[in-house]
# Entry
Amino acid sequence: METSADTFSTANNPCKLLIFNQDSNLGRMLKEYLEHDNYESNICHNIDQAYKLCRITDYTACIIDLQTTNNDGFKLAIGLKTLNSEISIIFIGKYSTKEEIVEAYHSGADDFVRKPFSLDELKARLYAILRRTQDLKVKKIRYYKFGQFLFDTQKQILSIGKKQTKLTTKEFEMLLFFCQNANRLIDRNHILKIIWKNDSYFNARSMDVYITKIRRLLADDPTISIVNIHGKGYKLITQPEG
# Structure
């Protein structure tokens, strides 16, 4: 997507994640799993290393593996919020008490995931948080320009050359969602939960219909496409992959 400093924004840049984990195996597993969805991530094993990384990298979120043997995770969360008040924080913990969970939220947590957990659950929680926090920013974005298209999010109009299409509410929501996540793989269930609010069978069929509609709208520019990654989800391609 092309951008303009005043009126355009891009969703091409992947979210940058910091993983604070004193168990290197879990850290590597989280990193590999999340990078399949184009999240960029770094792993750190102590507070000093985390602070050093945060001073040179603008992280979108931090996943903190809470260790029962110390309270480094709570200290780190408070410190990260001091360095960057907009960073989102997710704690993960095993056999956590109510007191620990309360302290996590007091330390700046946006969510708390109990162990054991599925990686899909963690990814869904992370996605929900980023969707919510990114909404605060995308409200200011009126135009998305990709390929030959200009998408006016205020008027809900998609233009290419002299052709203008007024989008229905659902078409608008779908295209906006794809633009906000351009060139990133989006899980099918995430789309359903964000746009349709649940992932029932009937909503899934409705989503397939609207995917087809959006593809038809984008057919006027062969360089733009929505691809189906079998068994995973969809991706709006706005730039050459390679």
